[in-house]
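Appendix B, record 7
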Amino acid sequence: MILLTHETRILLCITPADFRSGIDGFVALCQNTLALQPRDGSVIVFINRARTMIRALCYDGNGYWLMTKRLSKGRFTGWPSGQRALSHTSARELRIILSSTIGSSSGTAADTPRQSSVSGALACAPASTTIIRNTP
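Structure tokens (predicted):
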């Protein structure tokens, strides 16, 4: 279980990542390209080019977690853009990004914003705490 609080350092990698990589590939990306140490307790969040998948990498003290959310249809909205490599965010803002999508991935005018559930990935806990659970 990964506990996210208002004190958790959450970093969004603005540039889309190659999702063919596994844990070692994302750790290497953090260290070599982003100059991060993924074992420092941060949660580093990536998005794919199509904006249909998000992955979060973190280290819990004895191993890495690589969590994935793939949309059945639609695209994630609210992902930051700009010239920076990384954007700091809060657990609350991450929960909003994970639950905000745009209709189908066709990109037509018929697409409308909608809210998707984040069942099992992020659950609300007391105060400003978010828990990421590994559910079967």
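Remarks on this record: The chain has two helices and eleven strands. The chain has one domain: 2-132.
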